[in-house]
Design brief:
alpha+beta, 2-enoyl-CoA Hydratase, Chain A, domain 1, 6-stranded antiparallel sheet, 6-stranded mixed sheet, 10 helices
């Protein structure tokens, strides 16, 4: 009988050991997101050697960690997969959302590198009494000096709508600093400006600097305004537009495309292609269009230009575009920084000639190396006058 008990105890011990090992494995597996983690033994050796033998002190831990990430991405070797530090990530997020909470002031360095504050009319900063041209000394706990990056200062000034920020300034011509507690309000970041072309009142020019969540609505408002001023055709100016949200570019195409138009196809590994088509006529599906581009027109801006060109909705004037056909997803890290990861490609089913690096070929190319505004507008007038 005792022998049977010993056997069962042995079996129980083995099962318990297996269970402990399995639980430990599962805890490690899920705590690491299911992926094998590197130990970085060689890096640790090098770090310890430098710490013990180096003449200079080692850089701060966050800086070292950021440089490790940059080194990883450099080895990954994709030009659009990048690491973005917290302050710049916040500014990029504001730009893509099309709005932010702030004090409503422009910042400008003087000849000595001092950062000066210039409140906008009717802004929170102006209402608080901040004098134009005041030297900015601090934002909350951030001391502002000649070496403080502008992005860091702008990020500190921005925040949630309704929250408060304390700034300390020295008014221009005075020596005694003054502090202001200012409640942040929402300020739009316009991505669109517009005007009537002076030489031809029938042409409205809509300049688009980027593609954010609000861009399609801004363009619609701009088109309405130039039409109210008598414009019968519109020029979309996409010069020096580096893109932005892919969805925003697609929404802009939908404004001008006819029902059933194929806009883009998105390609991801191990997934079926995602093809986007229009389900109705766009609000301005019959509005005559011309589009201006140059070598810095890229990404979402190329989606707009290339799709509308291929669909026969617009003639393209200018220089061949950049040729960026990749899509980046933005992943937030715990300290407010982020990694932009190339996760997909897009193509123009109606324009298979567009491939990475090739860009959009204009219908009316400008041969000058660096055409001026006047060269573009002369070409616009020639193209417009030649159409029936």
């Amino acid at each position: 009988m005792k022998r049977h008990i010993d056997i069962w105890l042995a079996v129980a011990a083995v099962l318990f050991t297996v269970l402990v090992v399995l639980v430990a494995f599962l805890v490690g597996f899920y705590s690491n997101g299911g992926y094998a983690q590197f130990n970085f033994e060689i890096f640790n050796q090098a770090y310890n050697i430098l710490e013990k033998n180096g003449l200079k002190p080692l850089p701060a831990a966050p800086f070292t960690e950021y440089e490790m990430i940059r080194g990883l991405l450099k080895a990954y070797d994709d030009p659009y997969t990048v690491f973005v530090e917290p302050s710049q990530h916040e500014l990029e997020s504001n730009q893509l959302e099309g709005k932010f909470g702030g004090i409503g002031a422009a910042l400008q360095r003087d000849t000595l590198g001092t950062l000066r504050v210039y409140p906008y009319p009717n802004s929170p900063a102006a209402e608080a009494g901040v004098q134009s041209g005041s030297s900015l000394l601090s934002v909350d706990d951030l001391t502002v000096g000649a070496d403080t990056p502008d992005d860091t200062v702008i990020s500190a000034l921005r925040g949630d709508v309704g929250s408060k920020v304390t700034i300390r300034v020295t008014p221009q011509g005075e020596t005694v600093p003054v502090s202001f507690s200012i409640e942040r309000r929402e300020f739009g970041i316009p991505s669109v400006t517009w005007f009537i072309l002076p030489e031809q009142p029938a042409l409205g020019v809509v300049k688009i600097t980027g593609f954010s969540a609000t861009t399609a609505d801004e363009i619609s408002a701009a088109v309405q305004d130039v039409k109210a001023q008598g414009a019968t055709a519109v020029i979309l100016d996409l010069r020096d537009n580096g893109g932005g949200l892919v969805e925003a570019g697609v929404d802009v195409v939908k404004l001008f495309a006819k029902v059933g138009s194929t806009i883009i196809a998105q390609h991801q590994p191990d997934r079926a292609d995602q093809v986007t088509r229009t389900l109705t006529n766009g609000k301005y599906a019959d509005l005559p269009l011309l589009i201006l581009v140059n070598q810095n027109t890229a990404s979402s801006a190329e989606i707009v230009a290339g799709a509308l060109q291929a669909l026969g909705r617009a003639s393209i004037i200018g220089k061949q575009t950049y040729g960026k056909d990749t899509i980046q997803l933005v992943f937030d890290l715990t300290d407010g920084s982020s990694i932009h990861v190339t996760s997909a490609r897009w193509s123009l089913p109606a324009n298979p000639a567009f491939v990475s690096g090739a860009g959009i070929v204009p219908d009316f190319p400008l041969t000058l190396d660096a055409p001026a505004d006047s060269d573009y507008y002369r070409a616009v007038l020639e193209v417009y006058s030649s159409k029936p």
